[in-house]
Design brief:
- By secondary structure, the protein is α/β, with parallel strands linked by helices.
- About 40% of the residues lie in helices and about 10% in strands.
- The chain contains 13 helices and ten strands.
- The strands form two sheets. Strands 9-8-7-6-5-4-3-10 form an eight-stranded parallel beta sheet, covered by helices on one side.
- Helix 6 links the parallel strand 8 and strand 9.
- The longest helix has 17 residues, at about 245-260.
- The protein binds NADP nicotinamide-adenine-dinucleotide phosphate (NAP).
- NADP nicotinamide-adenine-dinucleotide phosphate binds near residues 23, 212 and 225.
Length: about 350
């Protein structure tokens, strides 16, 4: 494969590879030696963005050992906010953010986190408390940039406003669930990210493996697969395959795969790589073979006819007021006042 290209992380001065590497599997279904080889091969291909979280079992510790001696070669992202054990060990309060950041630094065996992401919206903590605690972490040198994951558009917009008013570090990225199977983000979140220059780092770009085409409606999940191992994943794969829309999308990906000679995973990832707001899908792999397959999703483009087919079969209705604006909106096609250029 040709090397991964670099894209700007939102409006920061940092560049990340067009495919990020998720470490959710590290130390879980993927042993440490294989995880280490995965990082080697990813780096050889030009990859430099690694994503983990405080709640991914031993992932941070495993990564800490794997990255020893080559920490500078990577943009390391982790997350905070999902429940850990005990009272006050959840959310985006100052107490939890500062304590978990220090723990993540220890587990990752590093002096700094490049991208510290709030994993989930916290409906209890005042946003000003979250934004100022994150700002302090940046000023202390423990964190370089801050981002969010799984937040709604109004929550991000409010957070950006709070940061701007207090001249505090603003979120530079959003990590949302986004794939051919999950395009709800295109209603509000993607326009917001384009407008405000946030990097978009989609998670579950293969819908947890469904878009690789390995699951069949009437067959049990293949041995060793996530759906065969984890009961919550079995249920979600079964739900997806039972759903007509999802099933049709998986079939369309398979058709494009047959027509192009690319694997289904490559077709699905390539489609996502080229979406307007996307910076770097975060790929998840269990094995070296999956990694090599998925890295070959970059370096080529779906032809317009295949892209159109995938666009159409997976399209979501935008709903009001977006649909209304498509019919009655004024100045359609005109350039917006604020143009974000060079975000990619
Ligand atoms: N911010 C968040 O809330 C959030 C949530 C979830 C994930 N994430 C991040 O996003 C990363 C990716 O998420 P994900 O693991 O759900 O991504 P995904 O790409 O949708 O699914 C990855 C899984 O699909 C299977 N797979 C991958 N490539 C394959 C291939 N070429 N052929 C066949 N099967 C293949 C593997 O599972 P099996 O082989 O085991 O079936 C692999 O673990 C995670 O590592 C994590 O860093 C973030």
């Amino acid at each position: 494969m040709s090397g991964l290209r670099l894209r700007r992380l939102g409006t920061t001065g940092v560049e990340v590879s067009e495919l990020g590497l998720g470490a959710l599997t590290f130390g879980r279904e993927t042993d440490e030696a294989t995880s280490s080889r995965i990082v080697d091969i990813y780096a050889e291909a030009g990859g430099n963005l690694i994503d983990t979280a405080d709640v991914y079992n031993d992932s941070e510790e495993v990564l800490g050992r794997i990255l020893r001696g080559r920490r500078d070669d990577f943009v390391l992202a982790t997350k905070v906010g999902l429940p850990t054990q005990g009272p006050n060990r959840v959310g985006a309060s100052r107490v939890h953010l500062v304590r978990q950041c220090e723990r993540s630094l220890r587990r990752l065996d590093t002096e700094w986190i490049d991208l510290y992401q709030v994993h989930v919206w916290d409906p209890v903590t005042p946003l000003d408390e979250t934004v100022s605690a994150l700002d302090d972490l940046v000023r202390s040198g423990k964190v370089r940039y801050v981002g969010v994951s799984n937040w709604a558009a109004w929550q991000i917009a409010k957070g950006l406003g709070v940061a701007a008013l207090g001249q505090r570090q603003a979120f530079c990225s959003l990590s949302p669930q986004y794939s051919l199977l999950e395009r709800d983000v295109e209603r509000e979140l993607m326009p917001l990210c384009l407008s405000e220059g946030l990097a978009v780092l989609p998670w579950s770009p293969l819908g947890g493996g469904v878009l690789s085409g390995k699951y069949r409606r009437d067959d049990p999940p293949p041995e060793g697969s996530r759906a065969a191992r984890l009961s919550n994943s079995t249920a979600s794969v079964q739900r997806r395959l039972a759903d007509e829309r999802s099933f049709t999308i998986v079939q369309a990906v398979q058709d494009v795969s047959d027509a192009t000679g690319r694997s289904s995973a490559q077709v699905a990832l390539n489609w996502l790589l080229d979406r307007p707001a996307v910076t770097a899908p975060i790929i998840g792999v269990r094995s070296l073979q999956q990694l090599e397959n998925n890295l070959d999703a970059a370096g080529w483009r779906l032809d317009p006819e295949h892209r159109r087919r995938l666009d159409e079969v997976s399209a979501v209705t935008l709903g009001y007021p977006h649909d209304w604006n498509q019919v009655y909106g004024i100045r359609q096609g005109a350039k917006p006042a604020r143009e974000i250029s060079g975000v990619h």
